[in-house]
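2024-03-11 09:14:02 INFO receiving multi-entity request
2024-03-11 09:14:02 INFO entity count = two
2024-03-11 09:14:03 INFO echoing inputs for audit
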Amino acid sequence: MDLLLGAVVLGVLLGCFYAAVSVGLSVSFGLLDVPHVAHPAFLVLASYGVYQLNESYDIDPLLAGLAITPLFFLFGLLAYRIYYETFERRGSDAAVRGIAFFFGIAFIIEVLIILQFGVDQRSVSATYIGKSWRFGEFRIPIRQLVAFAVALALTVLLAVYLSKTFMGRAIRAVAQDEEALRLMGANPVRIKQFAFGIATAVLGIAGALLIIVAPVEPTLDRAYIGRTFCVVVMAGLGSISGTLIAAIILGVAESIVLTLFGASWAPAISFAMLLGVLAVRPQGLLGR
Amino acid sequence: MKRRTFLGGAMAVAVVGHGSSALAQQPPIKIGMSMPQTGGLAGGGKASLLGIEIWRDDVNAKGGLLGRKVELVVYDDKSSASETPAIYAKLVDVDKVDLLFAPYATVPTAPIMPFVKQRGLLLMGNFSFQVNSKVGHDMWFNNAPWGPADSWAASFLDLAQKAGGKNMALLTADQEFAQNLALTARDVAKKRNIPIVFDQVYPPNTVEFSSIIRALKAAKPDIVYVASYPPDSAGILRAVNEIGIGDSVKIFGGGMVGLQFAAVMSNLGSLLNGVVNYNTWLPEKSMYFDGTKEFFDKYTKRAVEAKVDPLGYYLAPFGYAMGQMIEAAVGATKSLDQKGIAKYLRENEHKTIVGPIAFSADGERKETATLQAQFRGVKDKDIEQFRSSGKQVILFPDKLKTGELIAPFEAARN
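2024-03-11 09:21:47 INFO inference complete, emitting structure
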């Protein structure tokens, strides 16, 4: 019973972390229909940015993540503009060709990281890494509590931004009916570009959480492609609160399987749950 | 089509650029190999290659082999088993190399074993584990100190049983190398009637180990044998530090890959204390032989420029030793006849910078020289500390031993 309870608690923490690394994809892929397979590569790049600031200036990883957020916003604007000019503007099969474009970007990022930092894994130091919070016999890693709190705040803030602000509603509108937005005099491309910038900026913080939770290495993005897309599709495309719920379900399921049934089964869980959810609700948990 | 594949996969051809004019008049002796320079094995591959390059420069400075300079032909195999068969076919049929070195590690080496056996080619192995056990190629010679297949697990369990360990937990990565280790550990445990109270295989890409360590702790094992890969080794040790492993554990570690590399050791710092893990070379007084110090002086300088592991203990000196063995064999047989070189390698003991090496019939070491060492007094964020003796005390083998095991695990962590 203790083991099960512990697995659930650790699973919720892990799930919130999964939400943080997936929420940007929920905007770029879920809302904007951009086949952003380079999302995890952007995430790993952000982790290396955080590593550099932490190593060189001894800045706390979370503050470092916050510091690189504006840069990632600009990076997102640029990446979308290139994608739009070279693919989206030119035709209906943009999505298929876009996948090749983003795969290319992911490989370029991987190689650039290797050239700059080498192939060894890197990690950051902070007072909350490597320690745990005791509850009698039960211990929770503090780095996971930090990741949980920041991930929760990040997801809620993004959900509020998209539902309560003018720009947020414009982003939702462009996802629903681009033509209608154009008829009202708004430029949907600029709104999508801005939204892609937001989706990329979020990765500054998510990248900090990634390197807080575990060391990173240049090819780590490959481990997250499946998980992040699984969370976003299971959530219902574009649903931020759905992303949080789907990520927590996934985290708890993985944790229970790891603890009670054997680690070998854990990777199958994400996709088995995805298939299960899509069979019952093809639009995802909170999709419309 | 095939040609395109391997040409596309090739990244670098390293060529020696200097030598005396006498050397320059004769065609060079070409030694061909693939080496992981990108992908998961790149950290080790680059360090191994630097060790081989230092040997190449040393041997050329002494006049080369048979009066000809030595040239390395190297391709990046991207740490992938699917790349190496085409690369080695090209090395033999297009580049016409005189001798072959294997790439670093088991996974890229395994698929070229049938090829070299079929062609009757000598292959100097580079830290593979048990790749020749089923192929049975009589011209394979592994530079790694592993020795007989079960000696690795046996040495760890010897230490564990002496410390009072009576049951065992096994935590292993779902990878070829780790599973080979796990297999031998299960066999040795069965022979010694050591019950296995926890046996889990975790998949690659496991992000968080807290749940697994909680389950392992609940099994209350005395001995914890871990066979993990670099990204996971760090995650496992972090989780052990945070969740705790229990007072029952006498000894922890065994086959954790990654704890031999400077970046990982520096990242983990004090979390390493108490862990007993395998290694191949350590800066302890029992490990210095003719040329060892000179090799590390050169390696330390060149590692900075090459952006490779600044310590280079794990692979680099064995890359150099591989060259030394070829140098001795070619010198003694005065030819490049591969059968003759293989015969010499099989029948003689070879002096190298990592100590004397003698091979058994399967091309592995006659006796294991794989170290089991315990981390002690390690501080956080300090790579330089690992250059001094005492940070990893050698517990096995007896002839290289520099200290005794501190047990239980929790007592050794302080």
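2024-03-11 09:21:48 INFO post-check: The mean pLDDT of chain A is 89.
2024-03-11 09:21:48 INFO post-check: The two ends of chain A are 37 Å apart (CA to CA).
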